[in-house]
Write a structure and sequence with these properties.
It is built from six helices and two strands, in the order αααααββα. The protein is mainly α and about 210 residues long. The protein is globular, with a radius of gyration of 19 Å. The chain starts with a helix and ends with a helix. About 30% of the residues are buried.
Length: about 210
Amino acid sequence: MPSTLVHIAVAGLLGTALLGAAFDRRAILTVMAVAAVPDLDTLLGLWLPGAHRAYLHTLVFPAVLGVVLWWDIAVHSESTLRRRYGETGVRVAWVSLGAMVVAHSLYDGVVNGVNLFWPLQDRFYDLSGHLLYSTQRGLLQTFVDLSPGGGTVEGTTATTHYYTGVDPNRGAEPENVERIFHLVQSGERLLLTLAGFGVVMVRLWVSDED
């Protein structure tokens, strides 16, 4: 599964591309930090079984934040966010929210799965798969297969546990439990991580030059 480091790197790519004139050191660090927030449910998993990839990875969480943000900006008579941080703050807030969804929740969704609609629905969705064209079978995709046994819809918080260095076992831990903190789990993610941090560093360097 993607590590927090990889999520932060992907958020850096998205933030660099989307912040536009709002880009500066503080803005991009905010985007990258917010994108890492869903992994805090790893800590909740110490007390609440099945919390990781559910409680903060759910799309319900950013949806609620999005409604609050929209209300403050579009409905509230005087936007608190705009008053304190101007249009730059508004841009950073929306980009941060988008990065959290794409670079974290949905990224995990295509790698092993996420409880996408918790607490409205307690079910993990695994959207990993492939898209191909076969000369015999035509165009095929396996990202979403809702048929019985299709693999997209999987377990619940009661039956699913994603191990981490913080919470390696479900339930009681043996004294000699091995704690593994993944940094980068594949060459593809290493390339993505280097690209993400590299792009951010280059953009910051260019901004400092200007």
